[in-house]
Design a protein that fits this description.
Blueprint (H helix, E strand, L loop, with lengths): L7 E4 L5 H10 L4 E4 L2 H5 L4 E3 L4 H10 L3 H9 L4 E4 L1 H6 E5 L11 E6 L10 E5 L9 E5 L4 E5 L4 E5 L5 E6 L2 E4 L10 H13 L1
Parallel strand pairs: 1-2, 1-3, 3-4, 4-12, 5-6
Antiparallel strand pairs: 6-9, 7-8, 10-11, 11-12
């Protein structure tokens, strides 16, 4: 299986990069950190990790990867964003800092820090039929929430109060929580499936 998946990248500007590289590697993928446009050209899919979305935005401009990432997303590259990564993939952002931009891709509106501060972090089990019968153990850390989805966006998971915390649209996958922290690799598997299908 390892040979059948082209190289994939984890955007390595800020955030829990190591955990995603470990998850992808555990699944047999050739996973590489991506810090530049040249790095991006070497991969067939990209994970945007959790971290601080405003910092990822700023660093993506400093390192001149913002426009190449936007172009690859527009061209259909599979991308999986967790937490801050989900924010970065939203077309519309609520509660961003002044001037904050996203890469876009999802026809969706995401609210930053929707669950409150670091102190409001929590864990819960989510039923996600698309990933099978076993519930997904989800770790929420200063997590965003999806407030609006367009007609092409599929909702994969909601928390008990009905708020949307996982979505999919074509080759894009996004979760408000951190599967890589909980050792939950089914979203990474799904992402790799998208990469194989796209190549």
């Amino acid at each position: 299986m390892a040979g059948s998946t082209p190289p994939v990248g984890v955007l390595a500007l800020q955030g829990d990069v190591r955990e995603h590289l470990a998850a992808l590697t555990a699944l047999g993928a050739d996973a590489r950190p991506v810090k530049s446009a040249a790095d991006l050209e070497q991969v067939a899919g990209l994970v945007i990790p959790g971290g601080e979305s405003s910092v990822i935005d700023k660093l993506s401009r400093i390192f001149e990867v913002r426009d190449p990432i936007r172009a690859r997303i527009a061209g259909g590259m599979p991308v999986y964003g967790t937490c801050a990564g989900l924010i970065m993939l939203a077309d519309d952002l609520v509660d961003g800092i002044a001037g904050q931009m996203t890469f876009g891709g999802f026809d969706a509106t995401v609210r930053r820090n929707a669950f409150g501060t670091q102190l409001d972090s929590f864990e819960t089990d989510l039923d996600i039929p698309a990933l099978g019968e076993h519930p997904v153990h989800a770790v929420f850390i200063r997590a965003p929430v999806v407030e609006r989805v367009g007609p092409g966006v599929e909702v994969l998971a909601r928390v008990d109060d009905g708020r949307i915390v996982a979505i999919e649209q074509g080759p894009l996958l996004g979760t408000a929580f951190h599967p890589e922290v909980a050792g939950e690799y089914r979203f990474h598997e799904r992402f790799l499936d998208r990469v194989r299908a796209a190549s």
